[in-house]
Amino acid sequence: MEKKTIITEKKNINNVTMADDVKIFDFVNLYGCTIDENSKVGAFVEIQKNAFIGKNCKISSHTFICEGVHIEDNVFIGHNVTFINDKYPRATNEDGSMQTEADWKLEETWIKKGASIGSSSTIMCGVTVGEKAIVGAGSVVTKDVPAGAVVAGVPAKIITNK
Asked: What CATH code is carried by the domain that includes residue 69?
């Protein structure tokens, strides 16, 4: 039988500000972001530059957190959650040249303290998910979610509001 080498750890972590007791699982891509104390980042997660993860957060596997996303303390992000930071994404400009960072407008997103985002949700740019709000699995959040509300669906609609 042929022997195979198995790589059990691969982490691409560059220019990250990381507090104490942060747990990073394998197969991550983190660059230019900030992760505060006691937070966990699951496998196959990407967190881009200028994104912020607060204290005591759980970022589940296969999640994409792009530039301009601010996640406050005690937030749960389920598996395969995608954040978006550009309302009008294009690969090229009108003249056919490839777009650069100078060619698009960053739209910031805020996930407030204690909120929970269900697995496979998509969070459009420029929205705020309020404190202790819950986004149901598979939802597409297109507008602000009030504090304490539970939203679900495509697009996400309020199910209950405290």
From this structure: 2.160.10.10
